Amino acid sequence: MSIKKILVSQPKPSSEKSPYYDIAAKYGVDIVFRPFIKVEGLCSKEFRQQKISIADFSAIIFTARTAIDHFFRLCEETRVSIPDTTKYFCTTEAIALYLQKYIVYRKRKIFFGKSGKIEDVMPAITKHIKEKFLLPIAADANMNNFAAMDEANVPYTPAVMYRTVSNDFTEDEAFDYDMLMFFSPAGIESLKKNFPDFEQGDITISAFGPSTAKSVKDAGLRLDLEAPTAEYRSMTDALDAFLKKQVQD
């Protein structure tokens, strides 16, 4: 099999039970977790330039755990106290449960969806339409993802609280991978920034999500593996099937 070393452009899993470890053992491949991008929080001075007062809002919409971290960080830095009456709307239950890191979960009004899309939590949002909503986002957030709120005339204010930047490779850092796995368009941008003369050749490239897949193709690269699909819902399922076929061939 030609694939021996795989770069997964995500942080190393916190649990040893990750499917990636099972795949590495099953096929005898070396899987390296090395993000192409990293998240950088705005400082309080940068945030204040948006002229947004967190204390003015009665409801917060969270679409990522990263947004939660930087929201509460900026609250602390700007000395804003969040009242117990604040309502939280999250796009998944996992994101909602992450709030326990900062608040007493059972004593707060928290609503969440299942799909990770804003449309899934819209029934709860529209039911509380009289609230004043704050939406913590990244600097490169795709606002088209929140079109449902615009259509429903939800009174919300997007607030940039963090940005995605390239996690640059050092000169002495080896780049000898047989497969590169990307999870966001920003990862492709980082690849181009770090290796402007990159030639794919026999290197296998995989992408998670349609926007990432499009970025791979737009960069003039060959997309060898894509997830999710009707057959493979996760990247690990797709990778397992891909490596199995490599062994069989």
Features:
alpha/beta, six-stranded mixed β-sheet
Q: What order do the strands of the largest sheet run in, or round the barrel if closed? A: 3-8-7-4-5-6
Give the distance, in angstroms, between the N- and C-terminal Cα atoms.
8 Å
Tell how many strands the DSSP assignment holds. 11
Poorly predicted residue ranges: none
Global geometry:
elongated
What string gives the helices and strands in order? EHEEHEHEHEHEHEEHEHEH
Main sheet overview = 6 strands, mixed
How many helices? The count is 9
Q: Cα-atom Rg, whole angstroms? A: 20 Å
Estimated helix fraction:
25-40%
Question: Which percent range describes the beta-strand content?
Answer: 15-25%
> What average pLDDT do the residues reach?
93
Kindly name the structural category.
alpha/beta
